[in-house]
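note to self: dont lose this again. the chain is below, predicted strucutre after it. 358 aa total, dont forget to put it in the shared folder this time
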Amino acid sequence: MLFTRVSGQNFRLFRKFELSPVPGINLVLGANAAGKTTLLEAIYALGRGRSFRGAAPELAGPERSGWVVQGELASPGRPMTRVGLGWSVEGLQIRVDQADRTLQDLARASAVEVLEPDSHRLLDDGPVYRRRYLDWGVFHVEHRFYPAWRRFQRAQKQRNQALRDGLDRVAVEAWNDEIAAAGEEVQAYREEHVRELQAPLRKEIGALLGPLDWSLDLRRGWSVEHGLAEVLRSHYETDRRRGTTMSGPHRAELKLRLAGHSAKHHASRGQQKMLIAALLLSQARLIRERTGREPILLLDDFPAELGPGFQDALMAALQRYGGQCFVTSIERTAALEKLENNALFHVEHGAVSAASLV
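---
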């Protein structure tokens, strides 16, 4: 899977842009605030339907004006796929092959992952970020995951509403069986994904950081000694007092540890960036193995927090991956100078140059 063309209009500082990426590494150079991150944001939006900056869609274009980003995707043995995302006063519109589609359709058409300065939140912040990482991967390798997750969310919402409305126990627990069935199905898919990640993650961590004593474990959001239905019944009084369901896959936690300790407290910023790169690369490799489709990787501000040794190791890992990558940098560091037969784009004052080979 790779983008052969990406274009946009009225997207942040770009009145109009268009680029034709190559299958391998696409290097985007430019000064600070030139628009490098904005290009990655547009590509990310074509796979996720949102910005990795956390900005609302209406803020990505001029005031009271709409914006559009579009892409053409090629996959071996498959026809060209065209994806598009636009915002106007009528809201967000998603298109896949000229038809209105959902966020899930967009995500299935173009799998995109990003490593950017705020990616440290994957290790530093709460479990919601690690669940998102995990669920994105499960979504792409197990087609039954999303329907199960949606069933769980709907039942949980109804149970929570009954708790907040102060309904009797019978009305609240009417949702227990559906929550338990869907929740345990979600947990099973997640556990399988974590098991399958172990081998590729071991290779990526070894290549990027050398020998490390590490572990990746998934803690489910309820007691391992009991089924979810039993836990929901036994925790009814606690849930009633708090007005929400406290047990289930929405409380799960993915833990990456170094020598038995949280990676958050036992790794430098450079090591953390390399660990996150290992997590993304291993998941991308697993998706390729299971589906035959290679996720597109975006790396914003490649050299930041990385010494020359780490830069060389990460660039070598991207080249081994072999899928399409977009890498931004203010300048060509020694590691980037070693690139051969890859595309180079320059961004200056909201304009993108045509690709040249490096």
